[in-house]
Structures are given as structure tokens and as C-alpha cells.
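Table S5 (text form). Sequence records supplied for joint modeling of the two-component complex.
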Amino acid sequence: MEFKQFKEFSSEMIDYVGNYLENIRDRKVLSSVKPGYLRPQLPAEAPNDPENWKDVMLDVEKLIMPGVTHWHSPRFHAYFPTANSYPAMVADILSDSIACIGFSWISSPACTELEVVMMDWLAKMIGLPEIFLASAGQGGGGVIQGTASEATLVALLGAKARVLQQLKQANPTLVDADIVPKLVAYSSELSHSSVERAGLLGGVLLRALATDGEHKLRGDTLREAIIKDRADGLIPFFVVATLGTTSCCSFDRLDEIAEVGVDENIWVHVDAAYAGSAFVCPEYRHYTKGVELVDSFNFNPHKWLQVTFDCSAMWLKNPNHVINAFNVDPLYLKHELEGQMPDYRHWQIPLGRRFRSLKMWFVFRLIGVANLQKSIRKDINLALDFAKRVEEDPNFELFNEVTMGLVCFRIKGSNELNETLLKEINDRGKVYMVPSKVKGTFFLRMAICSRYTQIEDINFTWNEVQESGKAVLSKQ
Amino acid sequence: MEFKQFKEFSSEMIDYVGNYLENIRDRKVLSSVKPGYLRPQLPAEAPNDPENWKDVMLDVEKLIMPGVTHWHSPRFHAYFPTANSYPAMVADILSDSIACIGFSWISSPACTELEVVMMDWLAKMIGLPEIFLASAGQGGGGVIQGTASEATLVALLGAKARVLQQLKQANPTLVDADIVPKLVAYSSELSHSSVERAGLLGGVLLRALATDGEHKLRGDTLREAIIKDRADGLIPFFVVATLGTTSCCSFDRLDEIAEVGVDENIWVHVDAAYAGSAFVCPEYRHYTKGVELVDSFNFNPHKWLQVTFDCSAMWLKNPNHVINAFNVDPLYLKHELEGQMPDYRHWQIPLGRRFRSLKMWFVFRLIGVANLQKSIRKDINLALDFAKRVEEDPNFELFNEVTMGLVCFRIKGSNELNETLLKEINDRGKVYMVPSKVKGTFFLRMAICSRYTQIEDINFTWNEVQESGKAVLSKQ
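The corresponding C-alpha cell record, covering 952 residues in total, follows.
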């Protein structure tokens, strides 16, 4: 494909995607295709000769769109949001053309250096303590990971490397096999599935601890577990505190957990994947009390801060533990200027990495901090508005207090009734939600996910919920 | 940013990146900035109010481009290629606008289904046996991973899950801690650094085995290592065969290794990260002899097949071992139609994933198989042409036979002389290469990386090498 054709093709695509997004409210949010819908409509193999791009454009609407679940529809209330913004999309065009693989500073200095500065900008935007900023010169700094799952795994492996080093230094006769089977990590019972998976992948025991009446992990619970495990000969080394759980957006008591972490010499990692974006608004930063004591902190701008997937922001107070765990350097990756700037390949699981900081730079400059705050506050207010209606309707109740853009609610009655309600809502096909279950109680999750969501959409969704509620109650 | 502004901004960006790529030969391939060049030129924090996109465009050329190492310059010969093509870039615009997170079938059916079909198309394009195709209905299938590093780690963890299951089934009194410390994996001493890292991350011993005179791992070497390790009470469970090593593009003897794998019941994973793309040309498929016997196969279309990063293609004969190792399913991710199509979250380390199969679909349809073959053959012919000049010059010699787009060569003389030569070449700043060292011999790697590279560029590069050679010889 020549430049001229690329211009025509991309211009048509830009029109197409702009129209797609601006009119997304008109599309059915949840695809109604059946598994296996696509294969019969495609050739069995790739063509030998090039096709015309106009045919590909036609197939996008004809074959792909019917199978798309529209995450940016204002009627999409499932899971958590994923970001979408025009500045990020344009940045990705640039990133795709430079297409460098920034595994080391020398492999494309701008790729590393813009990331270092953008991670400092973002740390300031959410009020992280200076010790996490590269510009503070205290060894800390940020890195873009692909996902929060990877950030959790990286933190766990860094913590594992640290405890192995400490114990072997104290007792040089010890080898890894003496220590690893005794390692134990902790999280709240409501932490994300990726935390359990990080334990599996890291080959260590992960203990899911009970939460309090507000679904928060408390410091005393953690301390008791550590004391008991030490008494049983185990080696506690790592805890994940979740700020904004996926199940019900509860916040672990970071202030208490961080203190226990310091007292007991265990690595504290903060998973604020969803809620972290809200910390651009000072009024939500009270949830981060104690963060100056933690070892690593992570949240996903690709969820709620208008930077498209993937962009998971992670800060490490002392990256050397991770670097030591990951550093296996062949000659073809070494360069003369090592050590003066980070070589990010030592901070992550993959070797390759895209020029993702461009997305942050474009979004922060072209949207601005004030508008990012405004957007977060708009979403939270929409959630509070929906919550008010739940509370005012005698048939419905909230599962827990609404603090962010997620409303956990249920129809008064059994879990089975709520399962039927959810099925009714999604079968009607006008809005889309997923459920959760906490301590035996099944409920529905209504997340504000789209930047296009307005109060009319909340009216619409609430009407769908009420109508569905009436339908399931009448069938009882 | 509104749609109208997005159209203007993206239109200007499309012009900019097209001009950047079409004139990339004019830019200095290796950036000459010093570490820390960027921070003093940027504000200390993000702006509160939005800026004008025209200012951002100006800063791209002024601040970013001086720090870019131009991977798509025809004078870039370092590392291995990374892909770049117009169809893939347009596909990414679409992917960024749909911006679904395809962790399960229901979360966006088209995202999963196009990937299943594209992985079948690609398997056919490189001549993989039918057992790896989803359409064969034998349980096998493909998945897009982010990088070959992740694919290797996923394969290793799948193999670990399989051996644990087999041994615990045979002897129900065994627990993981009885087995894991005894596990041993193998690769060639020239396998990629990510293989060693997968061993580290997976918490198992990885043994790097000696290669033969042609730098290939042989079956007998593997068999002897397995026999010795078993005699020492260890449990061999996994081997990585590399097709096209990063060091010198040597090919392990897959035919022999696969046979040993079957005989000894160990999981064979093929890492063909770079060279795998060449298998679209039937004349290179002899390297894959034995592939019908392996458990997993991986290569990177994002290296040499015009699909932009990230797109690492992996096939598994029986994905259930990986699925069992990774499956930790909370209620909010479950859906009614599970099992009818893959839920790719169980096939990978992260939870989230982009709609990457669009890039494959656009590239395969708009470039076509014949042109992809032509492009591979062009690159290999350019490498062979360069190799011929090395052989014809009495001052230079090849390190090994050239079979793909990589020439490993040296100036006749000591390692130190070759280190000086490389420094001279890169300091002149007109072409960029990295070195490697195999069995004590230091040499230079000249990889054909850009789709713009033509014979004139090879003339240019060879001239740079000759001039640099004269300079270092005259200083001796």
C-alpha cells in the first residue's frame, strides 16, 4: 500500500470511527450473535493477491460490528470502564509509525525519557508522595505496564527477590528451595482474580483474608495472619491492598495495612486499578492515606483516565529488587550508557514495549487536568444519582455505599430473584451489566463506563431496571 | 476534543507520519541525544487547561524526533526487524475506537472469533500441521500473545501444570513442594534471554545446553542431559527449540528435539520469534521438520510479517494445560456461553487484551500472501548480497552461513579489533548495528530491518563497514 492509498484509506477510517463513536448510542450495546457466527462468513484462508481496502471497510460494518459489544455505549454498564479518547487515538497513530521497541534507553531514547517524565506528571496529578518520582532522585520511579495483572505479578516477583536476598544474606547456608515453599502472600478476599493468579504464577501461597463489615481489609486482620503464619514456620513477604475492588468498589484500609507492612517487613503493593484515576480529584485522596509507606503502587489510566488500553501506571520505591529479579542480559541488548536512565526491559515481564507515553502526553496536554477531574466527577455524580433512585424505590436496595462510578444494587429478595433480574435486563438487550457476589449475597453492578453517558442515559437504564424488576416480580 | 477537531488533527498526523516514513532515509538512524535530554525541555507538570493540538504537533518534531532511533530507516541494522505497514496502522485506528477488552467471548464476540480464524489463516500460511488449527476440531488452536517472552512463559507454565498433574495422578501422596524444586527445563545455550527469564519467573531450573559446530542444539545432547538429570533425581519437563536464534540466526534441530520430547514425555516449545515469518515461503519450511510432534509453537508477525507490535502468534496443541494453570474465575467474568468458543483470558498472563486480530486481517487481505512472500525473499536476498561482499573482501569474514535476513560478520582479527570496528561504525552515525558473541567469538550483526531497504542501502552500509574497517586497521 502506497502513501496515497494510505491517506484515502485512513481518512475514510477516521470518518468511520468518528461516526461510530458519536452515534454509538444507537447501536445495540450487547452483541446478539451466537458463538461461531463469524467463521462461515470468512474465506478459509488468506488471499494470495491484495484486495481493495474499500471491500475491507465494507466488511468491518457487515461482519465485525454485529459481533462487537460496544464498551463505549452509554448503555454499557458491565465490568469497569476502559478508556477511549480522540487525543489517545491520534497518539497511537504516531506511536504505530515510529514503531520503536523501547526495551532500552538506546533503542529509542525519547520512548524511555517521555515515559519517565509522564510517570512523574501522573504521580503529581494523583498526589503520590515525592519518593515515587524519578525527579526526586531517590531511586524511585514509574513505568508503564500492560495491565494491572502484570503490575501485581511484577511486584510479587520483586518482593520475592527481596525476601530471598534478605534471608540468604542473614544466613548464607540457605538456598531458594529452603525458603520458597514457606513464602506466604496476602490480599483481601475481594482482591481481583489477577492477584490470586499472580500467586499461582509466582509459585507462592496466597492467603485471601476476611474483610470487615464494609468489605475492607483491616490492619489487625493482616497482623494476626502474619503472626499465626510465622508461628507455623511460614515466611510472610507480600501483601496487596486494593483501593476500589472489582466486586463492589470497597477500599482496603491502606493506612493500617501500610503500617503493618513496615512493622513486619513485608512488601506492600497497592492495586488501585480502577479507582486510582479518581485521585486526580483531591477530595478522593483520603483513601491513599499511608501510601508513603508502601513499596509499589499501580492504577490503570486505560480504565478511567482517557488513555486507551494498554497503559497501566506502576511506581516502585526501589526498582532494584525487580531489576535484580529480571536482569538476564545478553550482549546484543547492552549499551554504553547503561545506568544513566532506566532500561525498562528490566522492569517488566515482556522484552518489547511500544511508545505508550505518547498517549499520556497527548491526553494530559489536550484534555488538561481540570477536564480530567470534571469527567471523573461527572461519572461519580451519575452513579450517585442512580443510587438515589435505587434507595427511593421500595423494591430495590443498595448492596453498599456508592463512592465511585459503580453502583452495587439488588432487588429485595433472594439471590435467585436477582439472577433472574439480571438475565431479564440483559436479555432485553438495551443495557448491559454483570453481577457479583460478596459474602453470599448476589447483586448487580451498574458501572458508568462511557464518556458519552449523560443523565438521560441514567434515566434510560433505571427505567430498564424498573421494568425488568416488575417483569420478574410479576412472574413470581 | 470534538469529532471535527479530531478529523483535522488526525488528518495532519496522517500526513506527518506518511511523510516521516516515506522520507525516513534522510534522518540520522541513531539518535545522538545524551541521557536526560528531554526533561529540561518539558514543563514539570501537566497543564490544567487544554492546549492546542497544533502546539503538540510542533513539539513532536522538535522534542520527540531528535530522541528517536529510527527502526524503519533502511540504515537500521540492529537487533531484529519490527513490523510497520499502512494496513496495520489503519487497523489500529479501528481497534482503538472499538476499544473493547476481549478477555472473554461475551465481552466482544468479534474480537475472539476473528482471532480464532486469523490464527488458522496464519497457521496455514506458514504450513503448520492441521492439529494446531481450531477448525480441525481436535482441541488445538492459536492465540495472540503480546511478545515471544510471554509465549515462552505461558508454555513453561502450561508444561509445569501438566507435569504436576501427571505426577500427582500417578502418586496421590505427592504435593507440589515435592516436585517443583526438582523440575528442570532445557534450551540451547543460544536461546533468547527471555527463555532464561521464563525459567527464573517460573521458579524452575533452566539448563542451557551446548550446541554443535553449526550452533544448533541436537537431539543427542538433549537426551544425554535428560538421562543424567533423571539419574540425579531431577524431573525434566520442558524444552525450548529455537528456530532462528537472536545471536546468529542458527536453527536448532527440531526434527531430533521433537522426537526426544515424545520419547521422554517432555513439553516441546518452538521459539521461532524472528524466523517464523519466513515460513510463509515453502522453501524455508524444512526447518520446521518435526513440528507435528511439538506441544506449542510461537513466532512474531510483529517482527517480519508487517503486523505492527504487539502481535506474537502462539499455537497450542492442547490449551487445557495452560487454561488449568491460569483459571481463577470470579463471578463478574463468567458468562452463559462458556466453552463454545475460547475465553482467551485463560490463555495468557494479563487479563485485558486489545482487538489485535484486526491488524492481521487488514495486513493479510490488503498485502496478500504473495507480497508477504516477496518481501521476505527480498530481505533474504539483500542479506545474501551483503554476505557475498563480506566473503569477497580479504579483510572480512562471515561468522556463520547466512540463511535469513541476518549477516553475522567480523573483521579478521581479535575480538577487540571487532569491538573497535563496531564502535567506529556506530560513531559515524550513518548506520546502526549491535554485536553478539558466540563461544568466545565477538562479531557484528547486520540485520535487514526496514521495508524500505533496497540494494542501494546495502551498498551504502557495506561502504560504511569498509570505510570503518580501513579506519580501525590504519590505527592499529
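Note: The longest helix of chain A spans residues 357-392.
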